[in-house]
Amino acid sequence: MAIRPLHKRLFASLSRSAAINLALAVLVVTAHAVAGITGALAAQQPRNIIIMLADGAAATQWDFGRYSSLILRQQPFASTDTVFRKGSVGLLRTHSANAIVTDSAAAASAMSTGIQVENGALSVTPNGTPLPTLMEVAKANGKRIGLVTTARVYDATPAAFSLHAKSRWNSEALVDQYLQLEPDVLLGGGADYFLPAGARGGKRKDGKDVIAAFRAKGYELASNTAELKAATRSKLLGLFAAEDMQFELDRNPEVEPTTAEMAAAALKALSQNGPHGFVLLVENENVDTAGHHNDAASLMRALWAFDDAVKVALEFQRHNPDTLVIVTGDHETGGFSITDALKDLTKLTWENRFSPTAEHLRMIGRISISLSAFSERLGAKAAGERLDELLAKHLPGFRLDPDLRELILRRRPLDRNFGALTQNVLGRMIARQTGYYWGTSGHTPEPVVVGAIGPGAELFRGYQDNTDFGKHLHRLIQVK
Predict the structure, then answer these.
(1) Which residues span the domain enclosing 355?
(2) Annotated catalytic sites, by residue?
């Protein structure tokens, strides 16, 4: 008979609440043993912590955001120009407990709990034992908590920072856990699993109206941008889409607020009635989805939208210097690589090569819809005339090579590691003419950049594991 390690046998014999308390104690002891708690660290303990997370972003994405913002918007990029340049900068390894390439659930769980979990799991051990999440620990220490995302609010990243599940796809149960946890602020998409199947957009099979349940607990509700901006209460639930919120190129600004607008509303609510401060997670999931679709134009605008939210966080910090602002990603998506390339395959000489310039970037800037929206408008039964019409209207200046055209019309993938069909093929078309290439439609094991500015920022300097990220945050919250 196989003998499980002592800590697994011990966890399995405890109740859920007892297991959480024991795991919390183990985590604290481990963190103390690894790095120690010094007087200097205690003096740097932040009152507020704002985690700005661009899902799927690593070094190339950050510099793409910086360069494109400078060239096309003539605006500084705060993530790189302020946080990375003036704060403490480090790298995080991203592998999960059972794979070198992590998914978002395992990555966020490590960053939330300080312990690696398997892909697909949300802050639980392989046998299902719940691990103390960052938001649970923050709330237990008297801090107010908030979660903001452009994805569904029960999606992998916000869920792993606050909830528990063996499977990230157990959406209905995750929403029920939010109702039990009662985060002070919850903003994003995902109204579908808050509403019964009979309601518009609802998918719950148990007939419950969880939005009404939040209202009964004193939450102010927002379903569009105007309602969000008018909100005044300290407890806020905002659901702006049935599922994920739209890419910036497709977003209706009257219905769906920007990441910056959601961040501002969250800070306004969390600043009320909080003698011990708060912990806020702000995620832009569209960075990751654009990577999966190999959509450089949507990636660029998602990075801009995220950076606008970083500026909101830094402005809050300017008035509240006891606030730690962290900017990071959880993993890299797409194998993004901006590179020189051949103009065509006729010859390999230098005369037949080009390097990406500002004009190539401007070509990307003229794209007017996301590649996802393009695919939806083209439809499953792709027709050549419709394809040409959409290309001319929304991707001006681009030509579709015959081999790529055939892949779209026959609905064939580029290769085994590309799964978005039309989007990935269009991404390859854009790459051939601009140099903005993608290696995959999935995740990669590239380390991610973490930048921190404010009290406690020095903890995040250097090359570390993503579990260290979670351990540092737990220490900063609990040190007295």
Answers:
(1) 336-438
(2) 104
